[in-house]
């Protein structure tokens, strides 16, 4: 008898999940909305893109450094309390930055950089907490479907955030856009936390009797380190494509196309996520990563200097088809992180993933910039494809090493 097939409709039937899911997505809007709003605000204030880069660098550094610490706090204490504290701290930090940009002279930019660092340390861990609690809420049978739905919905958030910021900027200006982003983050954190409490998964963990076990760092576990490395490589590869496409549109004198091509890439990811949730739920993880690598390789062949001039439509097709593997690949990394970490340390595990992806994105941005100056957009996209191939190798190795233990378990239960 074949096992039952589960889909998105099954998720909708889980009590309280739709509300949790929606607010977890709203809690991430700041990630895509803030860059546009904060950049315009800081440029108008300081008239310097160097200051913008320093502020965002400090914000990212704080977010990455505190990821595992926030996760550990969620695992060992109350996730609801953590969401309230970080929500208030993050909103207050952005409020201070807005106030300084509105009232202080531009010479105060070092103070803004320092405040940005502290604000990053207070970033609300909605994504890592939600990914840690999904298996508790839906059970093992629906976890893969839920992670795929999350990766797909995250693409919608990625597109919606900049649109929201642009709308507020057009109506009221960048200062208000930063303020609206901050308030939305706080409200989402509070409501998401309240929903977690209602679902019974956000309170204090049960006290342990007897001696507390010695907790080794998750980074001492080979399988976990391998999955974190895969996450970092996948993120770096995606960043390489995003930046290279923007650079290509600038080079051909059609910068307005950057948004269109990014939308094609995102639309492909949405289509891939929906297809995986509906028609190909059992698609092997290695095949997903292989599809991403193949799509990036195909795109690299179409860009200069490999092809000096190419019609727009092949690039659009390559971006859309290559994008279909993005959401499925991200969903696979979420599943692997959850499997490679103990249940009572999953928030910490996803914190390490957040740190790794932030580091991968930062390193990729720096490397891509150098490669673009050196040889044009084809080379960094090809490097992105190579990084995806390395992620594929690590995925296959992880599966090969897990297979013998799986077979042993099956023999014991048979």
Automatic annotation (TrEMBL):
Whether Cell membrane counts among this entry's keywords is no
Please report the organism this UniProt entry assigns to the protein. Answer: Streptomyces pacificus
Which topology term describes how it sits in the membrane? Multi-pass membrane protein
Recorded protein name is MFS transporter
| Entries under PROSITE patterns matching the protein | MFS (PS50850)
- Transmembrane annotation, as ranges: 20-43, 49-67, 79-102, 108-126, 182-203, 224-250, 256-279, 286-306, 312-337, 349-372, 378-397
GO MF: transmembrane transporter activity
Span of domain Major facilitator superfamily (MFS) profile:
181-414
Which GO CC terms are listed, alphabetically?
plasma membrane
**Where is this chain primarily localised?**
membrane
Keyword Transmembrane helix recorded: yes
Q: Which UniProt keywords apply?
A: Membrane, Transmembrane, Transmembrane helix
According to its UniProt record, where is this protein located?
Cell membrane
Q: Which InterPro entries match?
A: MFS, MFS_dom, MFS_trans_sf
């Amino acid at each position: 008898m074949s096992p039952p097939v589960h889909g998105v409709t099954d998720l909708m039937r889980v009590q309280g999940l739709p509300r949790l899911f929606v607010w977890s997505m709203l809690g991430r809007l700041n990630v895509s909305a803030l860059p546009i709003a904060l950049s315009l605000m800081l440029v108008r204030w300081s008239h310097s893109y160097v200051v913008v880069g320093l502020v965002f660098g400090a914000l990212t550094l704080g977010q990455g450094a505190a990821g595992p610490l926030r996760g550990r706090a969620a695992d060992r204490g109350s996730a609801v309390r953590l969401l309230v504290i970080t929500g208030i701290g993050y909103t207050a930090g952005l409020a201070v930055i807005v106030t300084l940009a509105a009232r202080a002279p531009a010479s105060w930019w070092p103070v803004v950089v320092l405040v940005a660092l502290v604000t990053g340390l207070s970033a609300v861990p909605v994504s890592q907490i939600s990914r840690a609690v999904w298996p508790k809420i839906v059970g093992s049978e629906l976890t893969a479907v839920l992670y795929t739905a999350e990766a797909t919905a995250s693409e919608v958030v990625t597109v919606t955030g900049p649109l929201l910021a642009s709308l507020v900027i057009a109506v009221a200006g960048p200062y208000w856009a930063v303020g609206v982003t901050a308030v939305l983050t706080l409200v989402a954190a509070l409501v998401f936390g309240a929903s977690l409490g209602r679902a019974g998964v956000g309170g204090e963990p049960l006290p342990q009797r007897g001696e507390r076990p010695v907790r080794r760092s998750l980074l001492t576990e080979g399988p976990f380190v391998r999955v974190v490395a895969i996450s970092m490589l996948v993120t770096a590869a995606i960043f390489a494509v995003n930046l290279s496409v923007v650079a290509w549109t600038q080079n051909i004198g059609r910068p307005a196309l950057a948004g269109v091509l990014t939308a094609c890439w995102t639309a492909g990811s949405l289509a891939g996520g929906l297809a995986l949730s509906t028609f190909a739920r059992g698609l092997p993880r290695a095949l997903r990563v292989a599809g991403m690598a193949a799509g990036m390789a195909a795109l690299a062949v179409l860009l200069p200097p490999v092809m000096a001039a190419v019609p727009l439509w092949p690039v659009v097709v390559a971006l859309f088809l290559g994008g279909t593997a993005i959401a499925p690949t991200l969903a696979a990394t979420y599943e692997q992180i959850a499997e490679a970490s103990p249940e009572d340390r999953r928030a910490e595990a996803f914190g390490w993933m957040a740190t790794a992806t932030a580091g991968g994105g930062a390193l990729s941005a720096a490397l891509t910039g150098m490669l673009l100056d050196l040889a044009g957009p084809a080379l960094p996209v090809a490097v992105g494809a190579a990084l995806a191939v390395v992620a594929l190798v690590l995925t296959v190795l992880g599966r090969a090493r897990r297979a013998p233990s799986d077979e042993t378990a099956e023999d014991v239960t048979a």
